[in-house]
Amino acid sequence: MTGVRPLALTTEDGLVLEGELSPGINASPPIAVVLCHPHPQFGGSMRSIVTSVLFEQLPMLGYPCVRFNFRGVERSGGTYSEGELEPLDVEAAINAMAGAVPSVPIVLVGWSFGADISLTVVDERVAAWVPIAPPLRFRAGFAAATDARSKHLILGEHDEFRAPDDVREEIAAWINTTVEVIPGASHFFVGRTDRVVTGARAALESVATKK
């Protein structure tokens, strides 16, 4: 990936997080993306498979991306806080992206734990959320649920942690929310990451057309 730059993200509570920016091929991007990785205590990092594929592919489609390691992961400072303080990490990544690409709407694209955490962040600079396989278990509530901005969930048909029907039932009352189920996919989307990219791209394009 050419053009990728390392980032040092500073959180509101004073931690320094490891991150990377891929500016992409579009000099005037319509949308920017912040990627949030899966569970830190189960091997999740910004280099996990789905996050890595999106970080590689979306910039080539014209969408700059920031990815980062949550607190306590690899070179990021701090320790895992059971989802309580991790939203501050997402805010730090939003700040970094807003600094790199000013005045461009930002979409939060999180996978698993990262999806849950992203749904708690309702920063005014966020245009939409694309939660991928959210377990909807790592927070007691999700502020995005009642937010008018769009939410497009991408689920695996055979998710081992939360079946699509369970997710649909839980989000039935969410505002401006759509669901896409990838046939044959597990929670990890092995062999189906191309479908995740396609789904995320369609969601980003939809947000861009409504700017």
Notable characteristics:
211 residues; alpha/beta; Rossmann fold; globular
Brief description of this entry?
This protein is α/β, with parallel strands linked by helices. 27% of the residues lie in helices and 23% in strands. Helix 3 (113-118) links the parallel strand 5 and strand 6.
Give an account of the 3D structure.
- The protein is α/β, with parallel strands linked by helices and 211 residues long.
- It has one domain (5-209): Rossmann fold (3-Layer(aba) Sandwich).
- Helices cover 27% and strands 23% of the residues.
- It contains five helices and eight strands.
- The protein has an eight-stranded mixed sheet, sandwiched between helices.
- α1 (49-60) crosses α5 (193-209).
- The chain is globular and about 40 Å long.
- The mean pLDDT is 96.
Helix-strand blueprint:
Layout: E1 5-10, E2 16-22, E3 32-36, H1 49-60, E4 65-68, H2 86-100, E5 106-111, H3 113-118, E6 126-132, E7 150-156, H4 164-170, E8 177-182, H5 193-209
Parallel strand pairs: 3-4, 3-5, 5-6, 6-7, 7-8
Antiparallel strand pairs: 1-2, 2-4
Helix pairs in contact: 1-5
What top-tier CATH class fits best? Answer: Alpha Beta
Elements, N to C (H/E): EEEHEHEHEEHEH
Distinct helical segment count: 5
CATH architecture designation: 3-Layer(aba) Sandwich
Count of strand segments: 8
**CATH topology descriptor:** Rossmann fold
Radius of gyration: 15 Å
Separation, N- and C-terminal Cα atoms: 28 Å
Q: What structural class do you assign from the helix and strand content?
A: alpha/beta
Low-confidence stretches: none
CATH superfamily membership: Alpha/Beta hydrolase fold, catalytic domain
